[in-house]
Each structure stands twice: as structure tokens, then as C-alpha cells.
Design goal:
The complex is a heterodimer of chains A (483) and B (643). Chain A is mainly α. Chain A is 73% helix and 3% strand. Chain A has 2 domains: 263 residues, no CATH class; 218 residues, no CATH class. Chain B is mainly alpha-helical. The chains are: A mainly alpha (483), B mainly alpha (643).
């Protein structure tokens, strides 16, 4: 019998509690001090994320549950939460300059990001269909708002609205799936579901249909084909720092949630859901590779790139093994770094005070900004998966897992898609290095950007030299998931 | 150790001159190459004494090369009597030519490269002759082929040299393919490629048959014919000879070393080495007799009308190789190797003498623009006389002994094929003497036909070139006289077990008991040839043009070299080019590129276009896509599980 508490044990959820309290406190601070306090609020938000990260790392990590079993903290949760917090904090730091220059310095922005991050942490730790939905919606509501944060921009508003409408549809599907699952099994708790489904025997068709709806909802959040359609429009329309944020933190949280839902309650149904994941993964890889070729807007291109990368990450999930989970977790780690670096460059594409987004605006960057071009080149090669850069190992581990799980077609298609995908990454390098220079970007590059750029580039370049700690962390996280 | 140094010293020279030539400079690299080569030559004399005189066969296993279950090959150096003769000839001639080249190539901008190739060639040739198994022999075989290719195309800025190099390479490929097939057949039949194993098992295999190209043939006949195809390519026998005259595009020392003295005789050596196989394949021996005799005759006739001084000697080489082969065909292996040795000396001498002339005449090779220079370069003139006398087989010069024993052996063979060879050989001997003196008279005598500016600078070659010539002329003078008794004399045990002749085939022994007219006729015809040449080119210079116009078809037929090049061009080169063109344009361009790279990239662009068009911007389209996705998955599961 689990111990019954009048007040739930809050210790495992300490980081979430901190973020929730800080979000409310910062909101108060902003309300009373006005927009002039945005800088303070922003830095405090970053600090709060750092503190939360500290407690995530030092806190329990051995599968502690609380809130009547709705909330779990295990090694997987710890690993993914750290990634989410890093992604959120970096995205927030990178947004400073942009918000200032675009006259968008409003204190709600950091507060919304903190709330979204809180939602993501909840998602990662969800151990119940209800908790899953709670975290997801908390995150999504904050994201809808930040997508439309540039209120006077038509595109930004349109992006926010599209995201909201389609997000609502996906939430509906997800809830419908949850209700079907509950209807069939009578449980929402992951542990109970897992116990109910591990008995073997005939799987009720209703449960499978519920699972399909649940997967569809989750696939929307990770922007996997065919639930990806919002991604290019939202990425392009949203303010660039928001796009950067979208590209990393929510994606990692959603993938983490995806992994947990598939492996924890429905781990016994691998043979059922594997087919969907394989189809979704292939479709994402292929569409991500082909559709990006004709994009001239770098943010749109990154949207398709992220669709493709989710496809690769799902290859590991499709394998359904600990090795596959490890591959996906590692993939998201490396994906985080590469994307943060790429968006750090994109956020510096500014000419005469105005942001530019065309990939031809990068022409001749190698001559005007050799170091920035070098960093961008490293990220592009890595995103394309060219050895010995980090992106290659990310792909290597998921493909290996797929091969070991005997999903040969998936691995082969994945490799072929990455060949096609290499085209547009290399095209950017060609433009940077071989095209006649266009006008120089505005100087100077903010110092926080320099640090982020350099760190991301060094990580991407030298990952191969010492991958052991990341491999070990991903391995431990994966083992927490696969029992 | 000594034996290893003999073979590997030239390799060291090649490595130093080749890899560090730029650092060392011209002077140092050629001295290093010549130094190592001299070491090798001196050792070869010691080894010759030990192996051939003391009859002490040495076998040194260096290391395992390939070891794959049934297939085992080791790097092994084998020195028996046959090898000792070959290493002596190769090392000494190569050494002299190395020194000669210092003078000849003095003004060339690529001296280190030249010496590197030359030394590398010598190493490969020594590997070939010291091989103890077929695969190692093939290594040396291909090595000399490669160096020959590199040296023919040494002056890479001349298109004709490049064309000649490629021609030599391609024609040799035909022969090498035969040789490789032969080796494979040997492994198939004998399950070994070691000489000792294969030769020991040859008598048992004799008479058995194997399936080749879907039909049944005598095993040893198939194997030996394939090996002989290889020998034909390397030794420029009729049919695969077309590369040799063109190979004269290389520097003259190369022609002397590779295309006269050593490499082209590799085929003769290989067949002699495999005498235990060929002896049990009488059909192959008949083929060899006919091909060799025909080559000897054919090349001599073409040599009559050539005007390029080096081409005349090249055809003469081709012709003399024919002699060696029909000697082998009548089982006179020792006579063939004997002729190989004497030929190496006097033919290298002739080439180097011609080189001196060319050098003196400002790189002129056409004899029609020479003449009247014998007083200006007396030493060269004397040397050319010695070489020509030896070549023509005038008594007591080297060629006299070796050519006569070959012709006598052919007569003693007593078969129709032997008589065919004897007849053509006698005629070729007459022709040889004629074209040799035609060369001498056209080059050195008669009216001066060169520019005065050229004539002003005609002189004997410098000492560095003359000393090797003098040493070689000693070989041309005395090699036959000295070695006759040992190599082909009656009851001589010189060859030990290195050459194998069935008792009933021993034509060399029988050659000593032929009628006197047989022994005398080559000499008589050679003297007659000299006389006719004197009559045509000194006494009555108007006769040759008159004959040429009178019998124009014959003259053109000969000067077009029996139309072999034209025939091959029509039969092989042009169809191959046409096929190549068709495959390139149609096969590669349309099919491979069209459906491969170009087709795929075009398809990618099309797909990319369509994929981008999916993104309409309308929310309801997006929502529709999501719903279609869900419905699709749900239907899939209804179908898969429910159905």
C-alpha cells in the first residue's frame, strides 16, 4: 500500500514548484514595475531555470512517484528535464537582443516561457493520462501566446492562430484517445495501464484505436508527418527567438512524452504501435528532406529540417528497444545543440537594423564573417549527418538500433532520406562559401551569442572525441524507460 | 644475403632516385642509381660463378606472400643455371646502359625520373628471372611491362610517345591475359604454382585432357599455349609484335635495355623455364616453331625498307626473337638461351651505337638524312661494324655461334616444321645481313645528306658513353666463342636440371652432326647479303629506287609492315572505339546518368516542388491532412486486426 499523504510529497516535484512560484512572482514583479523591468524579469527567469535545473540534477532520480502516482521522477525524466531547461534558458537568453531591437521588450514574454517550461517538465514527468494532458495544455497555451507575441505583425498573429486552432484539434484527438483507453481499460495511471496490458492475450480493437488517437495528438506536438502542417507556417510567422524556442525545448519535451507514453503504459503493445511509428517516421524523414529543398526562407527551411529530424528521432522509438530509446535520447541531445547554434546564427542575420531571413542573405558570409560562417558550416554539416560531426553519431545510433530491431527498410530509407536532406544543408554552405558576398550583417554580435555559438560549435565538432558521458546518461535514461 | 642484394640493389637505387630525386639533384641521383646497379652487376658475376660454374643451386625464401588455404605463394629467389645466365645478362647490360645513359640523358630535364624507372625496370626483370613460382614471375612480368610503358612514354610531351606507350601496354595486355589464364589453369590442374611441384607433376599430367571454353583439349597443350600467348606479347611475336617498333619512341638507352636486350626476351626465358611443361606438349612446340620462324622472316622483310635507324634495329630484334622461339619449338632451349645472351650484347651494342649517331646528328633518326659520317665518328663506326657482324652471324663473332646452332638444330629436327623454320631462318639470315649493311652504308657512307649545321657538330660520343660501348663490343666479339662449348657443346652438363629436354627431342646434340652445307649456308648467305647491300648502296645507288618503283606493290606492302597496323585498326581499334563511344553516349550518358544521377536529381527536384506545394497556408487543409492521417491509421488497424 502506498503511503497516503494529506498533502502530497512535494519533494520530487521541487523544480516544478520552484518554476511555478517564480512564474507567479515574476508576473507580480512585472505588473508592478512595468515593461522597464523586462530585463530583470528575463534574467530572473533564466536564473530560476538554472536553479530548477540544479534541483533536477540533485533531486531524486530513482523512479519516485508522488501526487497519487501521477508524477514520476526517474533517470529518464532527469535527463530530459535538463535538456528542456537548457533549451529554454538558451532560447530566452538569445531572445534578449531581438526583443530589444524589435521593441518587443514586454515582461510577459519571459514569464510565458517559464510557464511553458513548467508545462514541459510536467509532461516529462507525467505518469498518468490526466497529468500528461495537464502538462501538455499548460505548455501549449503558453506557446500559442508567444507564437503571436508580435501583435502588430500579421504573420505572427496568423501563426499563433493557426497553431492554436490546429493545436486544439490535436488536443481533442488526444483526449478522445485517452477516453477510449480509459473506457477499455478503466485506468489512466500508467502503471495500472501497463499492468493491465502486460497480461497478453487479444488486444481490444478499441484500445488500439484509442492509442492511434493518442499517438496522433502526440505526433502533432512533435510535428511529425502528417500532423506537421502547422510547423512551417508557425516557424516562419513567429518572431525568430520564439521559433528558436519552438525548435528546441517543446520538441524535446514532446519527444520525451512520446517515449514515455509509448514505452511505459503501452510498452507491451510494441508490435501494435510500431507500425504507426514506422510510417510516421518514414513520412517525416522523406517529407523533411524533399520539401526543404525548395525553401528560400531559412526559418521555413529549419521547420522542414525539424520535421525531418523528428523523423530520425522516431526511428529510435520505432525500434522499441532500450538501444532505440538511447538513440532517440541522444538524438534529441545533439539536436538541441545543433539547433541552438543554428538559430544563434539566424538571430544575427540582421542588416541595417532589420532582420533578414532569406538563405541568399547568407551569401559570402565566409568572407565577411569567417568565424560565424565556420560555425554555421559546422552546424549544417552536422545536421546533414556528415562524420565526424555530432549529427552523424546521432543518426548512427538510431539507425543501428533500427537495424538491430530488424527494421531494415526503415534504416535504409532513413539513410537515403538523409542523403537527399544533405542537399539543402550543403546548399547553405555553398551559398556562404562560394557565392558573391551580399551586404555585411550588422556588427557587433552580442557577447552572449558569441558564447552560445562557440560552445555549440565546439560541442558539435568534438562530440566524437568524448561521447562517453552523453552515451552513459542516455543509456541510463533509456533503461529507466524500458523495464 | 649476396643474392638478395643482387635483386634488391636496383630497387634501392630506384627508390632513392625516384622519391628523393628532387632533393638529391640530377648528379647525385644518377650516381646513386648507377652505383647500386654496378653493385648488382658485380654480384651477378660472383653468383654466376657460384651457381653456373660450381653448380650450386640457391633458393632463398624471403617471406610468405599469400596464404589462403590451398593457395600458398611465397616470395622466393631461385638461382639455378638458367637464372644465373639471365641475371648476369640483365645486370651487366643494365649496368652498362645505366652508365651510358648518364651521357645520353645529360641534357634531359627529368634525369632522376629516368634513372628511377630504369632501375625499377631492372629490379622487376631480376624478380622475373629469379622467381620460384608463377605468381612471382607474373609480378616481375607485370613490373617490367609497367616500366616499359613508363619509359616508352618518358617524353610525355610528345603525343606519339604517349600513343606508343599505350599501344605497348594494350598489346601486352592481350599477352598477359593469356599468361594469367595459363597460371590459373596451372593452379587448377596442379593445385600449386611452385615451379618444382608443377614441373615434377608434369609427366603424370601429360596426355590427360581438360575442358576449356566448353571443349575438351589436351591439358598441357592448353596450358602451354596460354603461356605462349603471354610470351608472344612480351617478346613481340607475329601477331602481337606491333607495339615493338612503336616503342622506339622511348629514349635510345631504353630501346637498348628493354626492347632489345632484356624485357623482350622474357618470353623466351619463360618458355625455357617451363621446358618441363612444353616438352610434353608437342603440338604447342609445333605452333611455336611456326610462329617463331614466321616472325623471323616477316620482321626481316619489313626491316629491309625501314628508314628510321631505330626501327630497322627494332625489326631486327623482332626477327632475332623469332629465331629464339623456333629454336625452342625444336626443343633447342639451350640454343635459344645462348642466342638470347649473345643477342643481348650485340643488339644493345647496335642500339647504343645508333644512339650515339642520333645523339651526334642532333636527334635525327632518319637514315635518309645521314650519310658520309664514318670519318667523323670512327669509334662509333667501328662499334656498329662489330655489332652488325655479330648480328649477321659472320664467323667468330658472337652471333655466328648462336645463330648457326639454332639453324642446325632446326635442320636436325627433321620434321616438316623444322624444315620450315630452317628454310625461313636461312632466308632471314640473308635479309638480316642485307639490312644491317644497308643501315651501315646509308648511315655512314655515301653522300652527306644532313644539314651543314648538323654536320659541323658530328663527333664521337663522350667517354662516359663510349666505355660501355667498348665493353659491350667485347661481349659481341667473344660471348659466342667463349660460351659455345659450355652452353650448347656436345655432352656439356652446363644447364644442370634447369632446362629439360626429352631424350628423343634432343636436337642440340643432333645439331652437331648435320651435313656441312647446313653449317656453311648461313655464313655464305650472310656474306652474300653483305655483298648485295654493297652493290645496291655503294656501287650502284640507283638500283634500290628502281626496284622500288618496279615492284611498287611489294615495296608498299613491306613498308606498310604487311598492313598489320591497318588490319588491327580496322578489326579491333575502330570497333572498340565505336563500342566505347556508343556505351559512353548511350550507355553511360543516357542510361546510367539519365536514370542515375541526373534522373534521380531531377526526380528529387520534382518531388521537392510537389512537397512544397502541399503547404497551402489554409488551416482547413492542414486540419484535413491531420484527420486523413488519423483515419488512415484507424482504417489500417481495423483492416489489420479486425479483418
Amino acid at each position: 500500500m502506498p503511503t497516503v499523504h494529506a498533502v502530497p510529497d512535494l519533494a520530487p516535484a521541487l523544480p516544478e514548484v520552484i518554476l511555478a512560484v517564480v512564474a507567479m512572482a515574476l508576473l507580480m514583479l512585472g505588473v508592478f514595475r512595468g515593461d522597464g523591468s523586462t530585463r530583470t524579469v528575463s534574467w530572473l527567469a533564466v536564473a530560476a531555470m538554472a536553479v530548477a535545473g540544479f534541483f533536477v540534477i540533485t533531486g531524486p532520480s530513482d523512479g519516485v512517484v508522488t501526487f497519487s502516482g501521477m508524477f514520476v521522477v526517474d533517470r529518464f525524466a532527469v535527463f530530459m528535464k535538463v535538456l528542456v531547461l537548457i533549451g529554454s534558458a538558451l532560447a530566452l537568453v538569445m531572445s534578449f537582443g531581438y526583443l530589444r531591437d524589435e521593441g518587443m521588450e514586454r515582461f510577459e514574454f519571459p514569464v510565458l516561457l517559464v510557464l511553458a517550461t513548467l508545462g514541459m517538465l510536467m509532461m516529462v514527468s507525467a505518469n498518468d493520462l490526466m497529468a500528461l494532458y495537464l502538462g501538455l495544455e499548460l505548455q501549449s497555451l503558453a506557446l500559442y501566446v508567444v507564437a503571436a507575441f508580435k501583435r502588430e505583425s500579421l504573420r505572427s498573429t496568423e501563426a499563433g492562430l493557426k497553431y492554436f486552432v490546429l493545436g486544439a484539434l490535436s488536443s481533442g484527438m488526444l483526449l478522445y484517445g485517452c477516453s477510449l483507453i480509459y473506457g477499455i481499460t478503466g485506468a489512466t495511471d500508467f502503471a495500472a495501464l501497463s499492468a493491465a496490458l502486460s497480461g497478453g492475450g487479444e488486444v481490444p480493437i478499441g484500445l488500439v484505436i484509442g492509442l492511434v488517437f493518442l499517438v496522433s495528438g502526440l505526433a502533432f506536438k512533435v510535428s511529425a508527418v502528417p500532423f506537421h502542417m502547422w510547423t512551417p507556417d508557425v516557424y516562419e510567422g513567429a518572431p525568430t527567438p520564439v521559433t528558436a524556442f519552438f525548435a528546441v525545448a517543446p520538441k524535446i519535451a514532446a519527444v520525451a512524452l512520446f517515449l514515455r507514453v509509448m514505452m511505459s503504459p503501452f510498452g507491451g503493445l510494441v508490435s501494435q504501435w510500431q507500425q504507426i511509428i514506422v510510417v510516421v517516421s518514414i513520412a517525416s524523414m522523406v517529407l523533411g528532406a524533399f520539401a526543404a529543398i525548395r525553401q528560400d526562407n531559412i526559418k521555413r527551411l529549419m521547420a522542414y529540417s525539424s520535421i525531418g529530424h523528428v523523423g530520425y528521432a522516431l526511428v529510435g522509438l520505432a525500434a522499441g528497444t532500450a538501444e532505440g530509446m538511447r538513440g532517440t535520447i541522444l538524438y534529441m541531445t545533439i539536436y538541441l545543440v545543433m539547433n541552438v547554434g543554428t538559430f544563434a546564427v539566424i538571430l544575427n542575420m540582421k542588416r541595417a537594423g532589420a532582420m533578414v531571413e532569406g538563405i541568399h542573405d547568407l551569401a559570402g558570409l565566409a568572407r565577411s564573417r569567417p568565424l560565424m560562417a565556420l560555425a554555421m558550416g559546422i552546424f549544417m554539416f552536422s545536421l546533414a549527418g556528415i562524420p565526424p560531426l555530432a549529427g552523424f553519431f546521432a543518426k548512427l545510433y538510431v539507425f543501428l538500433a533500427a537495424v538491430n530491431a530488424e527494421l531494415y527498410a526503415l534504416a535504409v530509407i532513413g539513410v537515403l532520406a538523409s542523403v537527399v536532406g544533405a542537399f539543402y544543408y550543403l546548399r547553405i554552405i555553398r551559398i556562404m562559401y562560394f557565392d558573391a558576398p551580399s551586404e555585411v550583417f550588422d556588427a557587433p554580435v552580442a557577447s552572449e551569442m558569441r558564447v552560445i555559438l562557440a560552445a555549440a560549435a565546439v560541442f558539435t565538432l568534438f562530440f566524437f572525441a568524448y561521447p562517453a558521458p552523453f552515451l552513459a546518461g542516455a543509456e541510463a535514461a533509456a533503461l529507466a524507460l524500458v523495464r | 644475403m649476396l643474392h638478395v642484394a643482387l635483386v634488391f640493389a636496383p630497387l634501392l637505387g630506384a627508390v632513392f632516385a625516384g622519391l628523393f630525386g628532387r632533393v638529391l639533384g640530377d648528379g647525385a641521383s644518377r650516381l646513386i642509381a648507377c652505383g647500386f646497379m654496378t653493385v648488382s652487376a658485380l654480384i651477378s658475376i660472383v653468383v654466376f660463378h657460384q651457381v653456373a660454374i660450381e653448380h650450386e643451386t640457391v633458393v632463398i625464401e624471403l617471406m610468405t606472400w599469400m596464404d589462403s588455404e590451398a593457395f600458398e605463394v611465397a616470395w622466393t629467389l631461385r638461382f639455378d643455371e638458367l637464372t644465373a645466365v639471365m641475371t648476369l645478362v640483365v645486370s651487366v647490360v643494365s649496368c652498362l646502359i645505366h652508365w651510358y645513359s648518364i651521357g645520353y640523358m645529360a641534357h634531359d630535364p627529368h634525369v632522376p625520373r629516368f634513372f628511377a624507372y630504369l632501375s625499377l625496370f631492372t629490379f622487376a626483370m631480376l624478380m622475373l628471372v629469379t622467381a620460384d613460382n608463377f605468381v612471382q614471375m607474373f609480378f616481375g612480368w607485370e613490373g617490367v611491362g609497367l616500366c616499359s610503358y613508363l619509359l616508352i612514354g618518358f617524353w610525355f610531351d610528345r603525343p606519339s610517345a604517349n600513343a606508343a606507350a599505350i599501344k605497348a601496354f594494350v598489346v601486352n595486355r592481350v599477352g598477359d591475359f593469356g599468361f594469367a589464364l595459363g597460371i590459373m589453369a596451372i593452379f587448377l590442374v596442379f593445385e600449386s604454382v611452385d615451379f618444382a611441384t608443377v614441373f615434377a607433376a608434369a609427366p603424370e599430367v601429360a596426355g590427360s585432357s581438360m575442358v576449356f571454353l566448353g571443349r575438351e583439349f589436351d591439358t598441357l597443350t592448353v596450358i602451354t599455349l596460354l603461356l605462349f600467348v603471354g610470351a608472344m606479347g612480351k617478346s613481340a611475336q607475329l601477331g602481337l609484335h606491333t607495339w615493338l617498333p612503336d616503342a622506339m619512341e622511348g629514349p635510345t638507352p631504353v630501346s637498348a635495355l628493354i626492347h632489345a636486350a632484356t624485357m623482350v626476351t622474357a618470353g623466351v626465358f619463360m618458355v625455357a623455364r617451363c621446358s618441363p611443361l612444353f616438352e610434353y606438349a608437342p603440338d604447342t612446340l609445333m605452333v611455336i616453331t611456326v610462329v617463331g620462324a614466321s616472325t623471323a622472316f616477316f620482321a626481316a622483310t619489313v626491316g629491309l625498307v625501314q628508314n628510321d635507324i631505330k626501327r630497322v634495329i627494332a625489326y631486327s630484334t623482332c626477327s632475332q626473337l623469332g629465331y629464339m622461339f623456333f629454336a625452342i619449338g625444336v626443343s633447342a632451349y639451350s640454343a635459344a638461351i645462348f642466342h638470347l645472351m649473345t643477342h643481348a650484347f650485340f643488339k644493345a651494342l647496335l642500339f647504343l651505337g645508333a644512339g650515339s649517331v642520333i645523339h651526334a646528328m642532333a636527334d635525327e633518326q632518319d637514315m635518309r638524312r645521314m650519310g658520309g659520317i664514318y670519318t667523323l665518328m670512327p669509334l662509333t663506326y667501328a662499334i656498329m661494324w662489330i655489332g652488325s657482324l655479330a648480328l649477321a652471324g659472320i664467323p667468330f663473332f658472337a652471333g655466328f655461334y648462336s645463330k648457326d646452332i639454332i639453324l642446325e638444330a632446326a635442320y636436325a629436327d627433321g620434321t616438316g616444321f623444322g624444315d620450315y623454320a630452317f628454310g625461313l631462318g636461312i632466308v632471314a639470315a640473308f635479309l638480316t645481313a642485307f639490312y644491317s649493311w644497308r643501315l651501315l652504308f646509308m648511315t655512314f657512307h655515301g653522300r652527306v645528306r644532313a644539314e651543314p649545321s648538323v654536320m659541323a657538330r658530328v663527333h664521337d660520343a663522350p667517354k662516359i658513353m663510349m666505355i660501355p660501348l667498348v665493353l659491350l663490343s667485347l661481349g659481341a666479339l667473344f660471348a659466342g666463342f667463349v660460351a659455345y662449348g659450355a652452353m650448347v657443346g656436345e655432352g656439356s652438363g652446363f644447364w644442370g636440371g634447369s632446362l629439360f629436354v626429352l631424350p628423343e627431342n634432343d636436337t642440340v646434340a643432333a645439331a652437331h652432326h648435320v651435313p656441312f652445307w647446313v653449317k656453311a649456308s648461313p655464313t655464305v648467305l650472310a656474306v652474300a647479303g653483305i655483298g648485295v647491300a654493297w652493290w645496291f648502296y655503294i656501287a650502284r645507288p640507283g638500283i634500290p629506287p628502281a626496284i622500288a618503283t618496279m615492284h611498287r606493290p611489294i615495296y608498299v606492302f613491306l613498308s606498310r609492315k604487311w598492313y598489320f597496323d591497318e588490319l588491327y585498326d580496322l578489326a579491333f581499334v575502330r570497333p572498340a572505339k565505336r563500342i566505347g563511344h556508343a556505351l559512353w553516349r548511350g550507355g553511360d550518358g543516357r542510361v546510367i546518368d539519365g536514370f542515375g544521377p541526373d534522373g534521380v536529381s531531377a526526380a528529387v527536384v520534382r518531388l521537392a516542388h510537389r512537397a512544397a506545394r502541399l503547404q497551402t497556408g489554409y488551416v482547413y487543409h492542414y486540419a484535413f491532412a491531420m484527420l486523413v492521417g488519423v483515419v488512415g491509421f484507424v482504417s489500417w488497424f481495423f483492416y489489420a486486426i479486425g479483418g
